[in-house]
Amino acid sequence: MTLRVDKQAVARAFGRAASHYDAHAALQRRSGDALLARAPAHSGLQLLDAGCGTGWYSRLWRERGKQVTALDLSVQMLQQARDNDAAQHYLTGDIDALPLADNTIDLVWSNLAVQWSEDLPGALRQFRRVLRPDGTLLFSTLGDGSLQEVHEAWSHLDALPHANRFLSESQIAAACHAEQLRCSSERVTLHFPDALSAMRSLKGIGATHLHQGRDGQSLTRQRLNQLEAHWPRDRHGYRLSYHLIYGVTLS
């Protein structure tokens, strides 16, 4: 389950998206709200938002009375969270090497961030390390089958990767089992008026970084027309599908 990830490139991609991220974050809201519904009624005071982005959920947790530490790999995202007055504390850091002491956090919250980890089991162990013995972990991530429309449409144009691949549900479930987490999943499909809007939604949330790198070709009008001709759609529009997977501390 290990992966070579250029963390600085990931940080730059999300940094470029920071100022307009919330306008494109429908999936993040869907995932985060589903994760909130899985949260226990009672938990301690100290909360870590690991991969906080613009601080949308940091602020929500702060409004619920938590002492929130907002952590993100991207300096620009963290500044956006500061501008939004989302938390009491802000940390630039990597979920694969949390800059926090052991046993200091009551609740670790991580919404759609661990798919950027180099090693999911390692990231979960980091979360467990900073949690107090009776602490709670809530995370969401993407599983295999996400962005299948991107893969399908581009496969008609070339053989290059145009979206990242994600771990299987069984791999993620195994990592959850090792940390005594309950694993569940759902599939979500978003719709867009055209293929360009679908791709812009990915760019708008910084999710266009490819671990394998890009070929540098620009998207010409001709290539866009070809892409749109092959992009899966239904009566609601051009589709983007996601496989959302949740991990929650067993109660």
TrEMBL record:
MF-aspect GO terms: carboxyl-O-methyltransferase activity; malonyl-CoA methyltransferase activity; S-adenosylmethionine-dependent methyltransferase activity
Reactions this protein catalyses: malonyl-[ACP] + S-adenosyl-L-methionine = malonyl-[ACP] methyl ester + S-adenosyl-L-homocysteine
GO biological process: biotin biosynthetic process; methylation
Stated name of the protein: Malonyl-[acyl-carrier protein] O-methyltransferase
Documented EC number(s): 2.1.1.197
SUPFAM superfamilies the record matches: S-adenosyl-L-methionine-dependent methyltransferases
Pathway in which the depicted protein is active: Cofactor biosynthesis; biotin biosynthesis
Family affiliation: Belongs to the methyltransferase superfamily.
Matches recorded under Pfam families: Methyltransf_11
Enzyme class (EC, first level): transferase
All residue ranges annotated as the Methyltransferase type domain in the record: 48-139
Highest taxon in the source lineage: Bacteria
Keyword field: Biotin biosynthesis, Methyltransferase, S-adenosyl-L-methionine, Transferase
Signal peptide range: none
InterPro entries, alphabetized: BioC, Malonyl-ACP_OMT, Methyltransf_11, SAM-dependent_MTases_sf
Keyword Methyltransferase set for record: yes
Taxonomic lineage: Bacteria, Pseudomonadati, Pseudomonadota, Gammaproteobacteria, Enterobacterales
Purpose: Converts the free carboxyl group of a malonyl-thioester to its methyl ester by transfer of a methyl group from S-adenosyl-L-methionine (SAM). It allows to synthesize pimeloyl-ACP via the fatty acid synthetic pathway.
